[in-house]
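I hope you will forgive my troubling you with a question about protein structure. The full record is reproduced below for your convenience:

——
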Amino acid sequence: MHILFLTVRKPPKTSTGQVSRLSSYPALLVDEPNIFQRIAALDPAQVFREVESFEPALLVYQGEPEIAEAWKNLGEIMFPRLLAYATSEMEPFVVLETINQRLWGLRRQRLKPSGRTPAPEEVEPEQLFAELEPGKQSEARRQARRLLESYALGPFLDQVSTAAMERLLYCVALLETALDEVVLPPHPAVLDVGTHIWSYAPGLAAYFRQKAQGVALTGIELDPWYLQAQELLRGEWALHYAHLAGATWREGDLEDLPLPPQDVVCFFLPIVLPQNTVLWRIPMAYHHPVQLFKSAQWKLKPGGQMLIYNGVEPEYQETLTALRNAGLEPTTTGPYTCPLRQQPQGYLTRVVQRTRLGG
């Protein structure tokens, strides 16, 4: 989502020119990285030409309240469909935190399920791991063949994209490292928290069906209201992959959803840093990593496993802090080396449920 901050110091002149066709829809609702840019606002005609060239999804006017509001009112004449916000606050993350609640409701108001299912996709074998250097590609593809055979993943080759197959294989390789020494009961209940589009769900299901003779797999996502590929919602993609995996998918917050006791709870790339919560347009009311991990522990059966994967060290350190504050002690934790990428790739943490909280 492109965000443009205009620093305004004087009231605007009234001349504006031709009304722009620039629109924040559907760009406002598409899941893209955030880009911040600031320009000083002087002449409206020049400023609005620059606004158009930047093509923002969100326009923030910063300055004295009356001046910022005057610029916003003039800007809304020029850009009637562009989401705008006037503020005296100069810190971008504070501004985003303030408007996230508005965006949260706007997505749900404007976006409706299409009723369509994704068009068929297929893996292009020569494109698998193409981003790796040539010396590592052959080993990655050898490992991929092993995983495809060991976990009967072949049928998914003509049902998912190349990118989805890579994520699926990365997921299975990570689970092997994290859980292969763990004894699980037959047909375990497995919960995956924060699924995004859940393209790796078939890999999750395949691993537990092989390791534990079956699985009751459930995925939950807090915010499925984003347009993704093929103009489908994130939640529609998650339901599609859930169907391929023979799994269940639900929208909601882990703390509020009634769920049966689980044998495994997975967190792949949980949002534990406040700034990441803001950047992903999630209201801070939903940022409660300590309570999140406590809720996961409450949903685990005695002897159940909580598995957490963090991609970068700051998130990993924040996860360890949140676990300590939740009164939880990791059983194992540390850097993870991905056999497909053949290099360190994030951090793995496992927590075993000993007793119920307060038990």
Summary: The first helix runs from residue 44 to 54. Residues 2-110 form one domain. The chain has two domains: 2-110, 125-352. DSSP finds ten helices and eleven strands in the chain.
